[in-house]
């Protein structure tokens, strides 16, 4: 007689701390993790060699103006004065930078970071000069203030992320809620009250720069997608692009920049041309393509990122091949086209498209208000196209925006 085989019990074990840390690190995109490594390495090297005099590399308005030491604009953001300084800044960068990088792509976020650092410095110098040489009350303190740290860029990112989220209020450390548009200013006041040696002007310049970016004042400086794609295709960057954590530009927001409040009639020229309505469309929550299944998508950070680890031929927008119905819908400018039984019978597949690992809410039978239609028209779409797209999407604004954007691409 055969002895019954002993069954091994099902043992469920939790991942250890090293595994959790490794998983957390692997989920941080390429550029964001690179900034964390560079800033951390610079701090520890300075700690080992005993370098604690930052007068040669800090952002000093008097040195920038009188001796034209513009390198200080970029060296200042990489150096930090203490362990808590670099730790807090990098902890704030990881969630902000990761989600913006998934929306914009790694190369684009690098460009935007350089742009924000430069604009922060220009605003910083301008205010310092205005305070030092105004005819009413002069004070030269700001011209000789030595500032270091990545927090100025972080305040710009906070403004941009708040604009992307579309929320009406934000919680300040879980203590109280403030209007979203004043969130960055409340953080500025809190940090000034709780911490010592905090650069008020450096943080304020970051906030102003962030608002200037979201309102489209830097649009003429933002290249189109082809600019970033050409950089990604270059041989000197090929080793970076092949890494799974690298997010290509085509996987991010299809516009050259993220949401602004610029009028749809504004124009740009040359290689920096772009459609303003594509900026406004990013205010709508969008679906994220991920190589790992996720049950819940963070609604605070809408966007679609694609890494090179994804399957080849996968569309970054996540549309099913049958979604070519969009093209047929938008080719016909006649509203009567909606009465076509073939279209009416295939509206649900369009409404049910989904990206890998992201659950998309449906709004079947939703009634679209005239205000929402006008919002899409303000993005630069034709009213007939808007109505057709909304009908095809069963009133889902997110799907309608994606349908309209796919035709413009």
Automatic annotation (TrEMBL):
One of its GO terms (biological process) is endoplasmic reticulum unfolded protein response. It is a multi-pass membrane protein. Residues 367-407 form the UBA domain. It is found in: Membrane. Its EC number is 3.4.21.-. GO terms for molecular function: serine-type endopeptidase activity; signal recognition particle binding. Keywords: Hydrolase, Membrane, Transmembrane, Transmembrane helix. The keyword Secreted does not apply. GO terms for cellular component: endoplasmic reticulum membrane. The chain crosses the membrane at residues 30-51, 71-97, 109-133, 139-160, 172-194, 200-222. It comes from the Eukaryota. Belongs to the peptidase S54 family. This is Putative serine endopeptidase. The gene is 25499567.
């Amino acid at each position: 007689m055969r002895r019954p085989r002993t069954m091994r019990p099902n043992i469920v074990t939790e991942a250890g701390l090293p595994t959790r840390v490794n998983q957390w690190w692997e989920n941080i995109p390429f550029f964001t993790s690179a900034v964390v490594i560079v800033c951390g390495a610079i701090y520890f090297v300075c700690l080992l060699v005993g370098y604690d005099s930052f007068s040669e590399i800090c952002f000093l308005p008097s040195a920038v103006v009188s001796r034209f030491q513009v390198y200080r604009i970029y060296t200042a953001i990489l150096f930090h004065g203490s362990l808590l300084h670099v730790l807090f800044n990098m902890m704030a960068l990881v969630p902000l930078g990761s989600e913006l990088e998934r929306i914009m792509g790694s190369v684009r976020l690098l460009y935007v970071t350089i742009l924000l650092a430069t604009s922060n410095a220009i605003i910083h110098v301008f205010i310092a000069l205005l305070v030092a040489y105004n005819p009413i009350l002069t004070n030269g303190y700001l011209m000789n203030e030595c500032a270091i740290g990545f927090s100025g860029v972080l305040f710009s990112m906070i403004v941009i992320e708040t604009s992307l989220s579309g929320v009406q209020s934000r919680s300040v450390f879980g203590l109280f809620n403030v209007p979203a548009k004043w969130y960055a200013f409340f953080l500025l006041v809190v940090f000034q009250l709780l911490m010592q040696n905090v650069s008020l002007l450096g943080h304020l310049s970051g906030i102003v720069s962030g608002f200037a970016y979201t309102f489209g004042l830097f649009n003429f400086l933002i290249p189109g997608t082809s600019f970033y794609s050409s950089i990604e295709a270059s041989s000197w960057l090929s080793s970076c692009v092949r890494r799974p954590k690298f997010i290509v530009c085509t996987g991010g927001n299809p516009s050259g920049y993220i949401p602004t409040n610029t009028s749809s009639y504004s124009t740009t020229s040359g290689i920096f041309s772009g459609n303003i309505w594509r900026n406004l469309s990013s205010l709508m929550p969008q679906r994220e393509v991920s190589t790992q299944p996720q049950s819940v998508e963070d609604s605070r950070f809408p966007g679609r990122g694609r890494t090179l680890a994804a399957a080849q031929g996968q569309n970054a927008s996540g549309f099913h091949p049958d979604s070519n119905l969009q093209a047929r819908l938008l080719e016909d400018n006649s509203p009567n086209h909606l009465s076509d039984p073939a279209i009416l019978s295939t509206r649900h597949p369009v409404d049910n498209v989904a990206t890998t690992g992201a659950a998309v809410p449906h709004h079947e039978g939703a009634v679209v208000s005239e205000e929402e239609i006008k919002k899409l028209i303000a993005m630069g779409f034709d009213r007939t196209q808007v109505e057709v797209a909304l009908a095809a999407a069963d009133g889902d604004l997110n799907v309608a925006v994606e349908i309209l954007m796919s035709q413009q691409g």
